[in-house]
Each structure stands twice: as C-alpha cells, then as structure tokens.
Amino acid sequence: xxxxxxxxxxxxxxxxxxxxxxxxxxxxxxxxxxxxxxxxxxxxxxxxxxxxxxxxxxxxxxxxxxxxxxxxxxxxxxxxxxxxxxxxxxxxxxxxxxxxxxxxxxxxxxxxxxxxxxxxxxxxxxxxxxxxxxxxxxxxxxxxxxxxxxxxxxxxxxxxxxxxxxxxxxxxxxxxxxxxxxxxxxxxxxxxxxxxxxxxxxxxxxxxxxxxxxxxxxxxxxxxxxxxxxxxxxxxxxxxxxxxxxxxxxxxxxxxxxxxxxxxxxxxxxxxxxxxxxxxxxxxxxxxxxxxxxxxxxxxxxxxxxxxxxxxxxxxxxxxxxxxxxxxxxxxxxxxxxxxxxxxxxxxxxxxxxxxxxxxxxxxxxxxxx
Length: 370
What we know:
single chain, alpha/beta, Rossmann fold, Dehydroquinate synthase-like, alpha domain, 6-stranded parallel sheet, two-stranded antiparallel ribbon
C-alpha cells in the first residue's frame, strides 16, 4: 500500500523579490501568469524574463483550444524554465505547457504514455485553494465534449512549488471564499477517501483545522480579517494538496465538472455547490464509515456536541452564502444528463469513494442542489 507521495520540492519565500533572488530568475525563464497578478509584482523587481498572459488567449478557465493557442505562442520562445504564477487555471496550463508536444491535446487524454515532461516547471500559487502547485493533475474543458476532465500522471508534477504569502494580499473576498472552500473540500475528500493513510489523514486534519480557524476569524471580525492568516491559508492549501495527491478526491469534485463545464462556473464555486449534500449522502448511506470520523473531527474543531457537518454548513453559510444550481441557469433536464456524464467520465475520482455511488445516487445529489 502506498502511504504517501510528494512530487515537487517545496520552497517558501516572504515576497516575490525574495523568490526572484533565490531562484535567480532571468531572461532565460518564461513566466505564465495573468496581467493583473504579474504587473504589480514588477514594482518590486523586474527579472527581465519572457512573459505570457493567459487572458490574451481567451477568458475563463482553461479549455483545450485555449491551451493549444498558448502552446503555439510559447513554442516560439527560447527558454529553460517555465514559471506558472497564478491560480489553479494558470498552474494547470503550466503543467501542460511543460510537456513534450503531441499532435493534439486529445492525445494526452488518450494514452498516459503520451504525457512526458520536457521543461522544468516552477509553480507559484496566488490563491489559497487549488493545491495545484503540489499535485499531478491538470484540468481542462474539452470543448467538443463540453466537459471538464483531468489528466493525472507522474509527469504532471511541478519540479518546484513556491509558497509566497504576499500573493494573497490582493485577493478579493469572493475569490478567497471560493478557493479556501476548494482547499477544505480537498482535505475532507482526502480524509474520507478509501485510500486514506496515516500521512494523508495528518495533512488533511491540519488543513481542515487551519481553514476553519480562518473562517471563524472572518465570521467574528469581518472579511478583512482574512489577511491576518495569509501564511496559514497558503499552508492549508498545500497541506490539502499533499493529502489528496495520494488519497484522491471523490464525488464532490466529480459532480463539479459537468455543472462547471456547462455553466462556466469557477472550479471552487462549482465544488462548493455539491459539498455538504455529498457529505449528507454518505452520512445517510454509510453512517459507520469514514464520514463518522469526519463528523467527530468537525464536532471537536467547531465545539459542538453533535452534527459536526451541520455546524460546518452553518459556518460556511456565514462566510460564503451559497446559491443553488438554478441560479446559474440549471434546470431539471440537467439532472439525468449530469448524473450520466459524471458516472461515465469521472471514474478517476469516483473510484476513491469509501462507499460506492452510481448514477441514481449522483442524480439524487444533483436534484437536491437544483
């Protein structure tokens, strides 16, 4: 049994300037980022490297067509290292760009043998949520299928993950809420996964604890209180990434892809949609499983005698109120389609469940969120 896996070497720097100096970033490097993220960093230091902005090739989360266009631009540049500075979308694109080229992006999905690392990749997260800097997964919307799907192999790991708390200084509150909920879901899905180990449990518990402490601080002291725990939020995201990289995510993430792909909902927000409902499903159908351990943990962390999942739902509603799928345009006709798409295309995730779920169970979750 595999206990634990770590891909990249993890570094910590207080500021972007410290990172540039420590890694000796220069004109031989290529930065992939967003202009609104990268331009303010140049006020402190300009490493003089090549720069490409994701938004120059399309808006929103990555699609296969967007990534193909970015590849064409990147391949015209002579560089040694690729530095992905951004949220999960930028880091996921960076993982694809660092690979040896195939005839089409579809080839990467068709056969894991086609996924071959070619460039050194440095991942620098600017949100505290995706954990992409530490994992071997990249997700894109496959436009022909209108569905988000992940690629997961050993060659998808970054070589270095660099945590810089300064990056969270300008994150808007809604993005903070969506991304930290994503990290919380990573940690909890890793905790209840059938693949959990003592190592993944340890990192998952620490991530859950730090994130909930941050939420309680925000609830009690207002949205700006989030900045007081930037370093802890960044660590929590990475801890959660370390946990689910070995244990895997499950139903929450699986459900998010059909909904998020069709209605163009950001990843963390789409996952949040199915979070509590999925926990309740397992609580009802597998009450003596890992969900029981989770509820006990939440009772302890949230200082309640029973129904820790209910206490979590209350806290989340206080810091990040949630709308139902219908608010995004979803209707009853989506339920059966989403359930079928999820069951047929997301077995990479569904196989990690401690309690099996089939199309009817998925439909139950989708219907409850409509």
